[in-house]
Amino acid sequence: MIHSLKKITTIILLFLSTNSFAQSKEFKMVDDYVKSLGSLDSMNMGTISTIVTKNFPDKLNKARAIFDWIANNINFDCKASRNGDHSIGNSDDIIKSHKATAFGYAALYQDMCSAADIRCLTVDGFAKKNVDDINEKPDEFNHSWDVVQLGATSTDWFYVDPTWGSGYTDKAVRVFTKAFNDAYFFSDRYIFNQQHFPDNMSWQLGGGAKNAKEFYALPIVKDAAYEFGLNGIIPMDGHIKIKAGKTEQFIIGINGGSGISVVSLLVGDDKKRISKQVNYSVNGNSISFSYKFDNEDSYPVTIVINGKEVLDYFVEIE
User: Fold this and answer.
1) What are the tens digits of pLDDT across the range 78-92?
2) 54-89 burial, b if ≥16 CB within 10 A, otherwise e?
3) Counting beta carbons within 10 angstroms of the beta carbon of residue 252, is it exposed (0 to 12), middle (13 to 18) or buried (19 or more)?
């Protein structure tokens, strides 16, 4: 199958359903306080930054409070994205309209952090969320996120993606659904690097793809990967070519396998998608299983763990 080229606007935010993970407990006091403030209409960026952070002396909680406010109060601008308008915009204008594309989200987060005396930089780069993106690198950057520094060493930089933390769109990028997802605050580096690739390699925190072409060859890693602590993938090639009747081995590294109850595959495209449960084994911190692809065909395959979609591949059976 030759993947159809997608408009950059579509590639930016093919959001899938999201979940909030364990961080919510750690930051419950911050989250509850920011939620109680509401949208703070009629206030400017600097004032809002001061209000949402004033109760928290440490920079970690301040950074979380700013993430909370943006993720809960700014909506993704589907129309601007579809029209290819990725201008950053003025932070106060974003606050007034409650809308932004990814570039505006990242710029607003940086501005609010700067107002709270937190060092934060915006990173432009590439992101992929749909199986059609595999091996289809766009000509221009299609996403922006932030890196935050809380200390003096390279390990004291952290990823924040306020856009993906705020919700998701449908595939046509016409409807935005608000869904707070704190997996994108101080995100796991391994998983984040499977989903994002920076224009400047200085801002690839930890290991990851060496170039954009290699990045776009990877499988699609979905939001539920954060819940399971994904830390390894075999095969690493998102486009699997295999002969009919042959078996492909899959190994997925996770943080603890005792809570895994069922592993299945979603096979086929949206119109012909069927679910097939697989026999799997858990060896320490990895899940392994094999699957035989019988008939000559080409289609997406999604790995599902405990009912949650974790990885997407495209399989070409010859």
Assistant:
1) 999 888 777 778 999
2) eebeebbbbbbbbbbbbbbbbebbbebbbeeebebb
3) buried
